[in-house]
Write a structure and sequence with these properties.
Length: about 180
Amino acid sequence: VNREGKGYGAWGETHLYLRPVDLATGFGEMTTLDDDPDWLKDQPALAVIDTGDAVVLWSRQKIFDFVPKVVASYRPAGGAWSAPLLLQDPGYIHEYPEACLDNEGNAVLTWVATGPSVYVVTYTKAGGWSRTSRLFTATAPDTVTNAQAAISGGNAYVVWATQNSSGKQQLFGTHAPLP
């Protein structure tokens, strides 16, 4: 929900559903964004800004295939949701999907995939989607325990935490200008 009290709810099963919400007036009509019933949808992460621009990230897995994929969709203010865009194949949002937008409608999406590895992709209104990048892979038995994304001053930031087998935690991060 943005500062104006408007946003979306997102959930998945055999379809990925989105439902707009306005805290002043209630829920709007449900939208089915990913409606192929042969795919299970899971782990949606959603961001919306005051202008109405929104982005959603989720994983999809073909039933009985066990080869999951990571996909996303963008909605400009007043427009329609884009067709689901494949970001990682194979790929699975194991934990910590995160979507964020700045006030211009640029997005940073990050997730922790099995491995465990931290991935990131950006979207800018000027250039569209970037390539998916793997930022970090933990060495077994270490795990990635969190990942967060932010945008500030035209830069994309991603931070993540790891934990080793003795419980020691470390914090890592990186940033780069938006493309």
